[in-house]
Amino acid sequence: MDLDGRAGWRYAYNGRLPGPVLEARPGDTVRVALTNRLAEATNLHFHGLHIPPTGSGDNPFLHIPPGESFTYEFTIPEQHPSGTFWYHPHVHGSAARQVSLGLAGLFVVRGEMDEIPEIAAASERFLVLQDWPEEPSPMERIRGREGALVTASGLRDPILPAAQGGLMRLRILNASSSRFYRLRMEDHPWYVIATDGGPIPEPAGYDELLVTPGQRVEVLVKGDRAEGRYRLLNLPYDRGGPLFRGLAGETLATLEYQGRAETTVGLPTRLPEATPLPKSDLPRRTLVMSEGMMGMSFTINGRTFDDRRVDTRVRLGSVEEWEIVNRGGMDHPFHLHTNSFQVVGADGVAERARRDVVLVPRGERRVIRAGFFDYPGKTVYHCHILDHEDLGMMGTLEVAA
Length: 401
Ligand SMILES: [Cu+2]
Hints:
Blueprint: E1 2-3, E2 6-7, E3 22-24, E4 29-35, E5 45-47, E6 69-75, E7 83-88, H1 95-100, E8 105-109, H2 112-115, H3 117-121, E9 123-131, H4 138-143, E10 150-152, E11 159-164, E12 167-174, E13 181-185, E14 190-195, E15 198-206, E16 209-211, E17 216-222, E18 229-235, E19 250-260, E20 285-292, E21 297-300, E22 312-315, E23 319-326, E24 332-336, E25 341-344, E26 357-360, E27 365-371, E28 377-383, H5 386-390, E29 394-400
Parallel strand pairs: 3-8, 9-12, 11-19, 20-23, 22-29
Antiparallel strand pairs: 1-2, 4-6, 5-7, 7-8, 9-10, 12-17, 13-16, 13-18, 14-15, 14-17, 18-19, 20-21, 23-27, 24-26, 24-28, 25-27, 28-29
Copper (II) ion is lined by residues 332, 383, 385, 388, 393.
């Protein structure tokens, strides 16, 4: 690919950066044939989908060797929320490298959300945010590799055409291995309609959005400003650790008004919120994320990842609260496979949003409420700074009847 004027090689799905957008509806059976033409093992993780973590489903323990093929096959449950999910490799030890070389794509589940009249009338755009790191030094690996060049859906500063009086719907994915994005659109507030795990109860306005690796956010942008161009900026954010450069805001994309919408569209008032989780009566579990030995070991509850061990056992059908504690010097975005969760505030009230990645800033803690429904089997949770995951900040979870 052309890397800002320089030729460079990358990994790609079907020769495309990012990979093709896969779309399905609740009830659909999905088959994805993966042929590995790399010189190393790879696999697929269907990030955020509520599907079996075993067999040919979202199985992070499968390794597809070079030259071999494997067909992933699963059914999207009838009650699955509509939303923005994604796929990427999940081979322990190689995840950061493979993802940052370009292996990532959106997996969109269309459903109730897409039938809301205002949302159906909006113009839809995908923004897959990727950066392009060089081979990292040991220090860059500890911090989590970042590249200076950032692209939005494979393009440097693409135009987002907007209509006066219309609505734009952006599905934003942070597909970078480590880089955080703090997003602001000049003169245009964000109206969030969905987080990782699907719609929230009603649109919520923000000036800025912090999107960590692995997270998705769906927003509406109102086309109600003067004709012209407005920059989508990525503002500096210090996530801790060495090498913070405090770069000035960079432009990721540019909104440009082009014409007028046929009819003026306002914001929707109600959204098809994902079902809130009931309170848990089980004791709270604690997971401590830390960085030991000068940053050379990344642990959860003092242990680095071992796929032969079971770290956490939960009962199928149960709801649990987990306290995620960050004792490290860097921020860590915590990701749980298979089941989404709600973040519980200091007042004990759960946020009306479903997520599968929650940022736990350095020195802080977050409580999540997760339901372990439908699928027995073994899966994982980990830091979504993929270098940290590769360095061991991952644990195994077994769900059993
Ligand atoms: Cu981390």
